[in-house]
Amino acid sequence: MRYALHFLVAVLLTAFSYYSGSLIVTDEHFVWQSLVIGFTVVSMGALTEKLGAPIWLIVLMPFPIGMSLLFMFLGELVGVWPLHMPLRSRFIRSFICS
Q1: What's this model's pTM, rounded to 2 decimal places?
Q2: Judging by beta carbons within 10 Å of its beta carbon (0-12, 13-18, 19+), is residue 73 exposed, middle or buried?
């Protein structure tokens, strides 16, 4: 029961970080996409841990999966993210224009 609670907290915190990042970078924010990414990333980390992998692999393994899902949901090339995203966000534009 304790592991399930820690798993749920990890999923929610990971989803919150993706959600808050999408609020800062773009005006498009979808809670369900953040939850899917959070669940997938934490599940991959838990599975890697269960298989007895070293800590560096447990940390490294979920990263490409999270980035792949982010690419799939955003629908843009990774190299374009830093160029286009800040200009779309009202949050970022309010700092640039004021």
Answers
A1: 0.73
A2: middle
